[in-house]
Amino acid sequence: MNDATLNRQHSLSTSHKKVFFVSDFQGFGERYGIDYRFPLLTSPHKTDAPVLQGDVEEITLAPGISLTHSDVEVLQPYETCSRHSSPLYTLVVLEGCVVLMLNGQEYIVRAGMAFTSRLCEQQAMSARHRAECRLTTLSLGVFPGNTWRNGLLDSLLREWELRGAATCVWQVPGFLLAGLAHARQGSADGVARQLMLEGLMLQLLGHGLSAHHDSAQHGNAPVRGEQHRLERLRRMLESAPERDYTLAGLAAQAAMSPSSLRSKFRQAYGCTVFDYLRDCRLDLARRYLLEGHSVQQAAWKAGYQHATNFSTAFRRRFGLSPGHVRMAG
């Protein structure tokens, strides 16, 4: 759903968790020009099959910026192919993982990361969503129009085009993730919430522009054989983040020098090896907390030696203390 409703102010959120069926997606597709596919459906006409449960909200911010916030549980796997046109599009994954395809290239966007690109009819974006996963995303589209003139957004778009508008995946700064969590979960409403979100989205666009510049400066995209080794390494970190790792040991497993691993991992996944490892550990610790483990137990089981360091990193990552998450679980 993250790319399903880019340039429309059509709120789908309710006070209770809503279930979205295949029939709802058919309506979305007709209205917004998106193709949906449900791999497990034996009949394409089974319109009463549930697909998502949760909330989806669309907000129009400054003229020319459309924000879609999705907080859903995927009940059935589905695939999308969006042919929206936006000269600057950003997807932020706050929880879960989204696999995107653009121009034959696969991009894996995990929690705390963002995807930025240009979308058009000749550059259609597709996405895969697997079942039984929770997905929280922010989808930000920039749509220039008659209201733009010579303002800040116009300057942003010109700078973006001058830099080549290349696709990149990048790490969202921790303080910005904390701000987004506060805006989503806080009690502010109406104009106050609108102002907070608009400020956060402008910061997000600025960091995306900076990340694009850094990516272009570093270059050295990994070749296909290296991509397989990097992906194998990433999966190892994801599946066992609690283990002790060293840069030299990881580089040896990837058959690279430490400096090559540093640069090529960042190029492929938008963050450093150890930033990624930290986020995997924090995601694992969060699951332990929700299962009822103590803060000390969750920290230790996720690979942290000191609860104080864990609590600081956890709050920076999620905007909430470990104790607060444990009580919520």
Concise overview:
The chain has 329 residues and is α+β, with helices and mostly antiparallel strands. Helices cover 43% and strands 25% of the residues.
Give the strand content.
Answer: 15-25%
The CATH topology of the largest domain is given as Jelly Rolls
Report strand order across the widest sheet: 1-3-4-11-6-9-12
How large is the radius of gyration? 20 Å
What would the principal axes of the Cα set say about the shape? globular
Uncertain segments: 1-15
- Name of the CATH superfamily of the largest domain: Jelly Rolls
Features:
329 residues, alpha+beta, Jelly Rolls, Arc Repressor Mutant, subunit A, 2 domains, 7-stranded antiparallel beta sheet, 5-stranded antiparallel beta sheet, 11 helices, disordered N terminus
Give the helices and strands, then pairings:
Elements lengths: L17 E4 H11 L1 E4 L12 E11 L4 E10 L3 E5 L3 E10 L1 E6 L2 E6 L2 E7 L5 E5 L3 E10 L9 H11 L5 E4 L2 H12 L4 H29 L5 H16 L7 H7 L4 H12 L3 H18 L4 H7 L5 H12 L3 H7 L1
Antiparallel strand pairs: 1-3, 2-5, 3-4, 4-11, 5-10, 6-9, 6-11, 7-8, 7-10, 9-12
Helix pairs in contact: 3-4, 3-10, 8-9
